[in-house]
Amino acid sequence: MAMKNDSILYTYSVSKIVTAIAVMQQVERGRITLDDGINASLPFAVRNPKWPDVAITWSSLLSASALAEVPQSADVSSIDAIIVAS
Questions:
Q1: Cys-Cys link to 55, which of 7, 37, 41, 66 (CB 3.0-4.6 A)?
Q2: Is 4 part of a structural domain of the chain?
Q3: Is 57 in contact with 34 (CB distance < 8 Å)?
Q4: What are phi and psi of 56, to 5 degrees?
Q5: Residue 84 falls within a domain, yes or no?
Q6: Does the residue 2 lie in any domain?
Q7: Residue span of the structural domain in which 24 resides
Q8: Domain assignment of residue 7, yes or no
């Protein structure tokens, strides 16, 4: 099938690589650190609904653990399932 102007392209995991390169370029330029919260760089707030008081950092976002890590301060007795990124 030939590509057209309205063809849909599925990027799948390629966008993760592009995002990682862009973030690391900003780290190299000294504009951010991997321990900075991502909200300082975004025009909107992003929070994990289970732990709204815990900032999502660039490091956790790039490691795909932003929604999987359980903060040390979390009360794990009230969490139905815990997924820890390895």
A1: 37
A2: no
A3: yes
A4: -90, 120
A5: no
A6: no
A7: 14-78
A8: no
